[in-house]
Amino acid sequence: MKNQIEKTSNSLVRKKAEESLKAKGSIIQNVDNKAEMQALVHELEVHQIELEMQNSMLEQAHKVAAEAVTKYRLLYDMAPSGYITLTPQGEIVELNIRAAELLGKDRFKLFNSQFDMFIQQDFKPKFWNFLDDIFALKSKMNAELMVLPNNHASRCLWLTGMITQHPDQCFVALIDISNLKIAEKELMESKEKLQELNATKDKFFSIIGHDLRSPFNSILSFAELLVEQLRENNYQDLNKYAEIIYDSANRAVALVNNLLEWSRIQTGRISFEPTRFDLSAMIDETILLYADAATKKNISLKKRDSELVEVFADSSMIDTVIRNLVSNALKFTHPGGKVTVSATQNAQGTKVSVEDNGVGIPAEAMEELFRVDSTYVTSGTNKERGTGLGLVLCKEFIDMHHGKIWVESKKGEGSAFSFILPKIFING
Asked: For residue 331, how far is the Cα from the chain centroid?
């Protein structure tokens, strides 16, 4: 085919040369003598050699150009990034092998097809803005888009586009940044986890340094007063000192227990052993446990529902959650108030609520209640102090059941702490 084209080209050149010579007249006809003829022949021979050399150079240039085109094509096709040429209407004019791989379809089936057919629906407006800006502004533009390759999982692509030598086409480079986005997400999660661990450490040392020291200081101080007055046979205020020592000891024990439970969760040493049990009976036992504390504060502590409520959960954890919620409700309810505990079942699972008509919680503080790095701490209506870990533990235990815990409250009107145990959860 190539030889035939060259022969045709040469014959056309020869024909044009003969026509040109005929138009100008033969040079040989005007030659008068042999010397001039020889000079003319010499000149023609030199021109012939020059033409042969130029022809050789042209052939070499053609060969170099062909090799360059082949090399470019190879680099284009085998590039690690995807390359694609689009019209202003988003039609694919050209693409390399990598671009076809990113779109998950045979390369030759993609020519003249619409690129936006592979873009996730919510990213299509962003793509069209990107394409319109390239042609309108005549400058390089970037965009990050999610695509849905044919029969493949979605990918996140970074697009860089610019106008080519053809004003009605743009060249777009496609880089798959899916793994980078996954790495960024994992890095962010690691950062959040590290911040949480730092907050956990800070909370731990804060409790050790202050909250745990405080009840023991009270115990030591009032025990010392108790010993001195007994030595002097002075029995005045002994009952008051004994009660303070008792309350401080209870607070210290509760704090130590919470710290131990919390540390077991943080180190993964806590066992998760769900069994079937009657939640209603557990609530009865909790109410009985706190009956004396409710009576001392003249608070009505009752259960709203009495029917059997069977659940499949870790009874020790759920018992801890209910006791913490009831204890808090009593702590933040004024004398003469009421605390009600209820358990109901529906299609989603089992919901437990502990409601009170106590002091309530400010709206800005409600989001902090279940956070280990929270600084929201307040005293009860009788100056009772909490451990600062109770609600954090409650959330940890409910999370292990794949449930949810939340609070609804109004300042000065009371609070309702609730949690739900789903009917089906994955054993964590």
From this structure: 39
